[in-house]
């Protein structure tokens, strides 16, 4: 049998990769494995848990984000030097296929499901092309079950994807460029069939928005949650969704009954100016002043809220960080993901910065290592990278220090009143705290805000 080696590279086990509760299996590789013909022997090598050791293979497939693309290139070089063909895929290679082709024999652009069969056919016939564009998959005909048996057993979460695409097109996000602006959905019966076959009690829905946008998507979400309830799957899970999910409270109620522990929501900022710059129109419509009301709706049904926020926009000041921190502490949000504004390939934001000549690190591909949400990689108007690192330490010290951290945990328990959900939220909080303490700036920069910070 021919041997296919699929690799999930890890450049450094820091930040969110330093905790089991905030690390997720490479579902895309499991889909590729499922699409590979039966005359191939397949293995997934995952650097989240296993140290890399060269293994013989006939073909190697590697997926990567921008933050770990250089590790992907390193591994690709090892195999190509031994005359073993390497295929690169994933969001970074899809955004910059010509760069990726400097390190691989072929690049799969976009979604692999429509094209992987041709890739294997061409390899078998010694006619491999340099670029394969997967186009857009019709998810209504998508009944592929990923090869989860090949994923590492140490993962806490099992991952499921039910939709692709995002119509919001936020300026810092490349999802709309990668998966398209049309929100595409799998059939409910196919999702439920997949869920029934999953071993393990804890699920992460990796959709960018599980509930979706508009009446049709809301109807599907309700059907999915009712199906999970009726089948008595007894899974505990979390999802990403938008701030407007509370427009239909029945969805939230059904999600809770189906086992939802918490939701991930991109609040992003507490200033309208930043939300306008981010093109976060749905948040502007709801209004920052109503963030707490959104959180309260989820709490009403025992669901926690993981709020994602971004710092590092232009014109942020000491007073802003103080105000922002006080807002977070008083917000009733249960978990905080606070990242640094990062211009990723394929986003309108990075194109804007290129035109303005504001990118600080452009020695690509080496400098891609810094594009991982914990570095400031562009020139700021009104502040410096050092000031942002200090501000991030200040905010997180306030959030994770005694007694604020303990009081937040108690407040979560009183708000959601579900011990299993509370414990999951506690573990995620511990993971984010650990990620902060593993960041490159944690011990290098102060955690207090001096008057002359800027």
Write the layout of secondary structure elements.
Elements: E1 2-8, H1 27-35, E2 40-46, E3 59-63, H2 69-81, E4 85-89, H3 91-95, H4 97-100, E5 106-109, H5 116-124, E6 131-133, E7 158-160, E8 163-164, H6 175-179, E9 184-185, H7 188-196, E10 202-205, H8 215-230, E11 236-241, H9 249-257, E12 260-268, H10 272-278, H11 281-286, H12 291-300, E13 304-311, H13 318-330, E14 335-340, H14 348-355, H15 385-400, H16 404-416, H17 419-437
Parallel strand pairs: 1-2, 1-3, 3-4, 4-5, 5-6, 7-10, 10-11, 11-12, 12-13, 13-14
Antiparallel strand pairs: 8-9
Helix pairs in contact: 7-8, 8-9, 13-15, 16-17
What is the gist of this entry?
This protein has 454 residues and is of the alpha/beta class.
Whole-number mean pLDDT: 96
Helix tally equals 17
**What's the level 1 CATH class of the largest domain?**
Alpha Beta
Please tell me how large the radius of gyration is.
22 Å
Lateral strand order in the biggest sheet: 2-1-3-4-5-6
What class would the helix/strand composition place it in? alpha/beta
Helix content range: 25-40%
- Approximate strand percentage: 15-25%
Integer tally of domains:
2
| Uncertain residue ranges | none
Mass-distribution shape: globular
Outline the biggest β-sheet.
Answer: 6 strands, parallel
- At the fourth CATH level, what is the homologous superfamily of the largest domain? tm_1862 like domain
The count of strands amounts to: 14
Please identify, by name, the CATH architecture of the largest domain. Answer: Alpha-Beta Horseshoe
Kindly report the CATH topology of the largest domain.
pyruvate-formate lyase- activating enzyme
